Amino acid sequence: MPEWKSAAKSGLRRVLYPAYEARLARRLPTERLPKHVGVMLDGNRRWARAAGADAAHGHRAGAANITPLLEWCEEVGVEVVTLWLLSTDNMARPAGELNDLLRIIEGAVVDLATQRRWRLNPVGALDLLPAATSRCLKETANATRNVDGIIVNIAVGYGGRREIADAVRSLLHEQASKGTSLEELAGILDAEHIAEHLYTKGQPDPDLVIRTSGEQRLGGFLLWQSAHSEFYFCEAYWPDFRRVDFLRALRAYAERRRRFGA
């Protein structure tokens, strides 16, 4: 394509996209928007590879896109956001990349806490993380516990199977401390007992789960909580995820008829 045509096309996009984005926002039915949104921030490494950069560059670009996402959520009245930043499987990445990623996550979480706009809640197996990372997550959660804003679940060292196993383990310890026998527990155990011991206990389940990068699978994200969630898969890599992509996800959600397993 000739250079002048490419420049003209780019200029046209800059003019039309804000108008398109504004129209999307205006037409969203506010009464049908999600209250809890889970986001799988996927594609940082592939984004960096396409740019000829190392993985850390992609992770830094992805971290920079978190605050805009939370601001978009605020605009439409979302009350809980769960961000999957590091899975238990990711803990097996090469040591150099993992250390870089953990430092970037720590920096991103501290930045969110410093803004004093959102209440941070770490979810995951913190005992699997290095002491410095675990301490950072706990300290930022404590520093923001009285902030009156969106609850932001920071899923680091998170795996859905591990969460369910931890919930069952916690339930067994609780009942044992009360003197409940296994036979008695088996007679009364139901789904609600387990839900009360999940990392997200006391929160509503996610209404909408968004995954970026074109992958169409859960990978273990909120396995228990997402039983009745709606899913939206976006082609954009996470660093390229824009407000217009978020609004499209909300539009798709609002257009669906939720059946809750029926």
Automatic annotation (TrEMBL):
InterPro entries: UPP_synth-like, UPP_synth-like_sf
BP-aspect Gene Ontology terms: polyprenol biosynthetic process
Active site (record annotation): 42, 90 (proton acceptor)
Protein keywords: Magnesium, Metal-binding, Transferase
One of the Pfam families matching this protein, by short name: Prenyltransf
SUPFAM superfamilies on file: Undecaprenyl diphosphate synthase
Binding residue positions for Mg(2+): 42, 230
Name this polypeptide is given: Isoprenyl transferase
Organism: uncultured Nocardioidaceae bacterium
